[in-house]
What does this fold into?
Amino acid sequence: MSLLEARGLTRHFGGLRAVDGVDFDLAAGEIHALIGPNGAGKTTFVSLLSGRVPVQAGSIRLVGEDITRLPAHARVRKGIAYTFQITSVFPGLSVFDNVALAVQGGRGSARDLRGAVAAALSRVGLEAMASDIAGTLSYGHQRLLELAMGLALQPRVLILDEPTQGLAAGEIGNFKDLVRSLVPEVAVLLIEHNMEVVMDLAHRITVLNFGQVLARGTPAEVRASPAVQEAYLGA
Amino acid sequence: MKVWASHLAVVALLLALGFLLPPYHATNMARIMVLAVFAMGYNLAFGYTGLLSLGHALFFAAGIYAAGLPIWHWGLGAAPALILGLLGGGIVAGVTGLLALRTAGVSFMIVTLMFAQAGYLTLLYFNGVTGGDEGFALPASGRMLFGADLSTDLPRYLTAWALFSATFLATLALVRSRFGRVMVALRENEERARMLGINPFTAKLAVLVLSGAASGLAGAAYGVLFGYAGASFATIQYSILPMLYVLLGGAGTVAGPLLGAVLMFALIEVANDLTSAWLFIVGAVLVIVVLFAPKGILGALRDRFFRGLP
It folds into this structure.
């Protein structure tokens, strides 16, 4: 049984078929990348999984339990964490408070709040900045803080929406190591435009195009697929 | 620790003032402390959670009438009346919140305003029970608390002080708790808070109930201490009043509502002595505050000097 399972997931916006009957399985402990041209429906698809956008048709199961109608905050408590594409920390709060909110709202017991916050911060290397105001951090550090908040939720599934966007080349290397260190405790679903990161990190790749699954497989298989080449490079 | 010490010092100072101030000023200070309780309740919703309500007069009035009507009709004592006021404000706020919290922002302002207007008109409509526009004077039997006559200066001051201190310290504990962190998160970015597992609706409803309970307690205390209940307390002025105190003193600070209430009271006194157009002076001062210290006095001080001020 897969950890997260979507069947026939559909969401149309007017005439636009943003997500159109997608089947998807996320296995425990895997890093799964979601790629596709701009407007392929990637962000809408993970928004359906996380509950930010309601599902029109289809079903979502987490460890066998139907969560299709669950509101987003309840899914977070079940273990689906979503980190935002545009960095969305609380700029006026301290780094500590940002992570503490995630610990409180997450799946863990949060009895030892300070310990849990410190653990999440040291995982991303921000432990020295706990008392800084989040808005004063550099962009790269804010992305790490966002990731620490995701980890502090103690998720089963961590959805990362374009996590390396805007990071410097040196920071990307550290980021890859960090994501690799998360599995197999957490399954990671990664939306990413940087193909080098995708090919390097992902165990499996799903390619979306016009809201439908175009191809799925290992990085090597996807790279060799003529359909994928056509979608990306044009006929 | 420093935070608790400074706030306890405020409480101690206010207690001392009760014995030092001449009667006229002591009565004013008692009134200020009761209105500060109202403003602290308002501040929980507006200052900490970002819920801009224009309907808090309804919760204040719910407190006055939940305390005043049983005193008037059935001869209830002051102590149970104060508790009824607290519950009345909380319950009315809860019912209002269940419906009004389906909206946000400007719509929330309008919906809460409408609820308060409906409450005001209800008070007028049932004037046989509520005394309507004229209101009613609370009988002396309902103004006795543990053998002390609340219409006399010192017992009145001490009661106002006790209720103020309890609300003040409870607010401090609340905003420094885990739930206080959630309140601020909802104010800063509700969608992000939701994606951290926080249910915005239930959290905001809880805040509104607490806010309404404090407002109701203030209303009940106002009735019991100053001896009058009337429908005018349910009008829009009494929704604006706590907002002005909070804006002037500093939204989202524990001591801001008290500071705002004291300054506004003093400002009105001074302006009243100078000119009959005292509202003009009050308005001008508010414009200046909003322009140059949009976070209020304590908010501006916190940004410059005391970063950890809750």
About this structure: The two ends of chain B are 12 Å apart (CA to CA). The beta strands of chain B are 136-137, 144-145, 148-149, 228-229.
